[in-house]
Structure formats: structure tokens, C-alpha cells
Specification:
The protein is an alpha/beta fold. The protein contains 20 helices and eight strands. An eight-stranded parallel barrel has the order 1-2-3-4-5-6-7-8, surrounded by seven helices. Helix 7 crosses helix 8 and helix 8 packs parallel to helix 9. The structure holds cobalt (II) ion (CO).
């Protein structure tokens, strides 16, 4: 039996443990080695990497992708894309989504894992369609969460929609690491009865369930799992690649990887991790097992952001209160899965509610947009009092929000003029206007781009 291994050290492990502050200079020398391991794919782009490149690392994210592609000739490159949100935090126009997906593939991407934070499948259709048109592998995604309204039938229904859309594979994305081994087994089994595309399972080690969940995923016939090289594994990151490969190989699964090369990859990343711990970029707090997350359902990236946010305000002692407020805010919003951008929105709102000492005294503008329906359909009912506070007598948007967003590309291109050197630059600007303009100005000034990072810069 084959079981695909996706290595996440460059994207999700990096994002979940150190707020995506890993510069290319710290991993480029490992790429050839990684290419020789035999991974099914390396998740290396998308998620928060794009924002982080422009905002903190002084890197062109597109150039990062091209460099990775140049070194990785044999391994599929994989990215995470937030459907109509692309790599940003609001919905873009369809022309932007199509161009972004096309350019991602042109610059070397193979597999695009596409999700919508609300599991509103209307929000991944455009990206999936464009990915397929350009010969990419479209992986439709179900965001797994636990709530009074989420159940097996709902997830199987989503799986059917993903298959009907033409996706090449499906991913069950458990960003919080709260999917239990048995639930995973039942979910993969139920999906396999109804759909025929391969099913990949993505989880985190946060609660300590992750590695066990992967074993049950394999038993149920999942096609692959996401792991991180052991030095960047555990805690809010993925379970360790070497341990899973060791165990699964003994159980008769063929993971297709060279075990001795896995060790070399890990040897490379050990001093890298030590450096970022010494700098304070990687806080060892996130490496522990947090069984409490089974109650609070806080995903890895969200927990490290909450810690950074509270540290910046000298309010770490209020972390427990914020962790208790988070599920209350989530319930008020109709139980959205806690994944970007909803995880940040809910996290910030919970923090504000605690620090101001009064709930919803200040309501974030993204939360208001969510309540107006600008992120899609909420999975459940929104707290009436809160909805009324934001909407007054207006009604939320019913249709697909992107239909109301005017094309963005031509106007952005005209605005940037010479400052944009490529279509990719224009897309960077549309995705993150301020950060891209700052990056272009630095690039054009001829001053060498400096790598700068500080945990306090986490938004
Ligand atoms: Co993840």
C-alpha cells in the first residue's frame, strides 16, 4: 500500500511555529537534498508565506517560488490557497483570482490545495476552475471543525461538491489538531464510500492526537498525510515525518521516501531552529502539547499569533481569559471553522473583548464585513443581537460576494506604472498593497534588501 508524504517544514511548520518568519536564505541550501528524499510533495508556498515575504523578509514571494522550483526538479510543489481570499484576508475579484492561480502554476506550482474558511464551496470554484484549466492539480478542501452544527453528513456533502467540481483530490484540513483518530477513521471511511478521488489528511500535533490520527487515516485508506521534519515538528506544527514514516513502513505502507535522507534533511534544519529560538522568533511555548485545545479549538498559527499579540501588549497573563472568550465569539458568529482569515478575526475580537473589559465594545471591520456576508455564508446562525448591532435593519448578502467585486488588475497595473516589473508584481500589489509598495520602493532604491523580523510585528 502506498501512502504519500507531504513535507511541510517550508510552509505550515514555519507558519505554525514561528509566524512564517523563515527567510529563503535559511533553507535554500537544503532544497536539493529535500528533492532527493522522495516526498510526494513539499508544501512550500501560499498560506502566510506570501504576506511574510513582502511584509517582513524583504523577499519577492514569486522569486522564492521560482528558486524552489529550480532546485526541486523531481518533487511536486504544493501550496495552500484560501479560495477567493487567495493569500490575503478579504475576497478578491474573479479576474485577480484567475490571474493569481495561473501565475502560480506558470512559476512552478504543481498542487494547489484550495479551501474556504467557511466551507462555502462557491468561494473555491473560480480558483479550482482556473487551476484545472492550467494543468494544475486542484485539491479541494474541507475545513474540519467541531461544533453543534458540523457532522459527518455535512462533511460528506461537502466532499461530493468537491468531487463534482472536478477536483483531482480532496483534503481534510484539521488546522487545530482536534480531529480524533476515530473521527478521522469514520470521516475518511464515509467519504470513500461516496467519492472516488484520493483523500489527503492534514492535521497538527497541537493536542497530541496528530500522529494517532494519521495512523487511523492510513488504516481507513487515505492517500497521504502531511508531516514536518522532526526538529520542526510537534506542538502547533505537524507530527514528525521520520516517526510516521518509521511506524507506517513497519505496518506495511510504502511511503516512497529515503529514510537516511530524511535524517540529513533534519540535520540541516536543527541549527536553523536553534537560531530562531535564540532570536525569540520561535517561542518554545508553541512546541508543547496543549490538550486544552480540545476544548478551545485553537489552531497552531492562531495560538502563536495570540501569544505574540498578548506579549506585545504585556498581557500574557490574560491568555487563559482570551482562550475562554474565543469559543464564545465563534458561537456568536455561527461556528465558523477557525482558519485564516476567520482565526485571526475571531482571535483579535476575543482579545479586544477581554482587554477592553466589555464584549463587542469595539467590533473589528472584518467581523462587520463577515456579518454582512462578505466572506460567504456563515455555517450557522449569527447571534441576533450582534447581527443587529452591525447590520441595523439591513440584510446580509445572499449571493457569492465576488460577483460584486469589480475587476482589479488593469487599474492596479495603471496605478503602479514602471514600479511593477511584471504581472506578478501587480498581483503582489493587489494582494498586499502597502507591503508591496514598500517592497518595490526598497527594491528600486538599490539598497540591499534586509532581512528583518521581530515577533512583536505579528498583527
Ligand atoms: Co495546517
Amino acid at each position: 500500500m502506498q501512502l504519500h508524504i507531504t513535507e511541510t517544514v517550508l510552509r505550515d511548520a514555519n507558519q505554525s511555529l514561528m509566524a512564517t518568519r523563515l527567510p529563503m536564505a535559511d533553507f535554500e541550501a537544503a532544497l536539493d537534498l529535500m528533492d532527493s528524499v522522495g516526498y510526494h510533495s513539499v508544501e512550500c508556498w501560499g498560506g502566510a508565506t506570501f504576506d511574510s515575504c513582502l511584509r517582513y523578509l524583504g523577499e519577492d514571494p514569486w522569486e522564492r517560488l521560482r528558486v524552489i522550483r529550480k532546485h526541486m526538479k523531481n518533487t511536486k510543489l504544493q501550496m495552500l490557497l484560501r479560495g477567493q481570499n487567495l493569500l490575503g484576508y478579504h475576497h478578491y475579484s474573479d479576474d485577480t483570482v484567475r490571474r493569481f492561480v495561473r501565475k502560480s502554476i506558470e512559476n512552478g506550482m504543481d498542487i494547489i490545495r484550495i479551501f474556504d474558511a467557511l466551507n462555502d464551496m462557491r468561494n473555491i470554484e473560480t480558483a479550482v476552475d482556473e487551476c484545472l484549466k492550467n494543468g494544475g492539480h486542484a485539491q479541494g478542501t474541507i475545513c474540519y471543525t467541531i461544533s453543534p452544527i458540523h457532522n459527518l453528513e455535512m462533511y460528506v456533502g461537502l466532499g461530493k461538491q468537491i468531487e463534482a467540481m472536478g477536483c483531482n483530490s480532496l483534503c481534510i484540513k484539521d488546522m487545530a489538531g482536534i480531529m480524533s483518530p476515530q473521527v478521522c477513521f469514520d470521516l475518511v471511511t464515509a467519504l470513500k464510500k461516496e467519492i472516488s478521488i484520493p483523500i489527503y489528511v492534514h492535521t497538527h500535533a497541537t493536542t497530541g492526537l496528530g500522529a494517532m490520527t494519521y495512523l487511523k487515516a492510513a488504516e481507513a485508506g487515505a492517500a497521504g498525510i502531511d508531516c514536518a521534519t522532526s526538529t520542526f515538528a510537534g506542538g502547533t506544527s505537524q507530527p514528525a515525518t521520520e516517526s510516521l514514516v518509521y511506524t507506517l513502513s513497519e505496518m506495511g505502507y510504502d511511503c516512497g521516501v529515503q529514510r537516511d535522507t530524511l535524517k540529513k534533511v533534519n540535520d540541516f534544519f536543527m541549527p536553523v531552529k536553534d537560531k530562531f529560538i535564540a532570536q525569540g522568533t520561535l517561542d518554545p511555548y508553541v512546541l508543547g502539547t496543549k490538550a486544552d485545545a480540545l476544548v478551545y479549538q485553537i489552531p497552531g498559527g492562531m495560538l502563536s499569533n495570540l501569544v505574540a499579540q498578548l506579549k506585545a501588549q504585556n498581557a500574557m497573563h490574560r491568555l487563559d481569559e482570551v482562550l475562554e472568550e474565543t469559543p464564545r465569539v465563534r458561537a456568536d458568529l455561527g461556528y465558523p471553522p477557525l482558519v485564516t482569515p476567520l482565526s485571526q478575526m475571531v482571535g483579535v475580537q476575543a482579545t479586544v473583548n477581554v482587554l477592553l473589559g466589555e464584549r463587542y465594545k469595539n467590533i473589528g471591520k472584518e467581523i462587520k464585513a463577515y456579518i454582512r456576508g462578505e466572506y460567504g455564508k456563515a455555517p450557522g446562525a449569527i447571534n441576533e443581537e450582534l447581527a443587529h448591532k452591525v447590520l441595523g435593519d439591513e440584510r446580509p448578502i445572499e449571493g457569492r460576494y465576488a460577483e460584486t467585486v469589480a475587476p482589479e488588475f488593469d487599474a492596479a497595473k495603471a496605478y503602479l506604472g514602471d514600479r511593477a516589473h511584471s504581472e506578478e508584481d501587480v498581483l503582489s500589489y493587489i494582494a498586499f498593497p502597502q507591503q508591496a509598495e514598500q517592497y518595490f520602493a526598497k527594491r528600486d532604491s538599490g539598497v540591499p534588501l534586509r532581512v528583518s523580523y521581530s515577533i512583536r510585528e505579528v498583527q
